[in-house]
Prior knowledge:
Structural class: alpha/beta
Number of strands: 8
Number of helices: 15
Number of domains: 2
Order of helices and strands: EHEHEHEHEHEHEHEHHHHHHHH
Radius of gyration: 20 Å
Distance between the termini: 42 Å
CATH topology of the largest domain: Rossmann fold
CATH architecture of the largest domain: 3-Layer(aba) Sandwich
Strand content: 5-15%
Strand order of the largest sheet: 3-2-1-4-5-6-7-8
Shape: globular
Amino acid sequence: MVANPSAKKKAAVLVAGSWGTALAYVLACNHYEVSMWTRTEAQAKEISTQHHNEKYLPNRVLPPNITATTDMKQALQGAQLTLFVAPSSAMRMVAKAAAPCIEQESIIVHATKGFEPESLKRMSVILAEELGRAQADIAVISGPSHAEEVILKLPTTVVVAAEKVEVAEKAQEAFMNSSFRVYTNSDVVGIEVAGALKNIIALAAGLINGLQLGDNAKAALLTRGLAEISRLGVAMGANPLTFIGLAGVGDLVVTATSQHSRNWRAGYMLADGTPLQVVLERMGMVVEGVKTTRAAYYLAQEYGIEMPITEQLYEVLFNDQPIDRSIEALMGRMKTNEMNS
């Protein structure tokens, strides 16, 4: 159900990347006055006066009820909903800066898919620590949702999770409309783990496409990749059913099969031997799957979980292992039972 359009509502979105802008657009369509926070004065001016965000969503016009500012206090003043969409590596810094300015009654939602690189903590944990809120009061929104399609109002279905049902339902009401359908869930751990780890498989999928290894290989990658995601997620406390839902298999499919996916594109570029740092510079945007591969590699060791795809991608990205050697390692693993591995 969409809230009464006559009521005055304000939302703050931190920061103004592609996904943050797309979700700001959804909120604006639902009659929110949306204030976006960005570090860049030029970007703030472009969004507020020209109604564009060309670097992240080129050739798309934003409605006038989306504005932007570099003043964190101004962005957050009066906001009944605060949406964090900072990169995982910057989430703590953004949350720390926002904490003194957030309205006490503001609903806290995040849409970032990754782990903090140093601590390996999930984003809801970081927000709870920095905002002084209970983790149960923080929601996460995730699912198969390319920003480029959301802003065109193409049919999109996602899930919002919070430990408290009322928190999830408030976020659901804020975002849901005729082109953006939102389900609720209580499995915050599963939603966050699925959203982060699918970027690893998307990177590998781009590699497979770039190497022209065929559809059979990609199907196997997605299937065995989902097994890895769910294996680690369950070890961390997730509900296994989450991984066959929108935030699991749904987000995995869309991210690993579309050129809209920056993780897929990065993997595709790596296939011809382009160094990782060069690929990241050419992308010009955060590729969460790279840092997540490192985080998942260490989380797998911490929880004693086998993640062979993640391990081999880690070797390619960070130890300069030739891609063909990683493929040989995966295909040459010991015989095992599908249900037990």
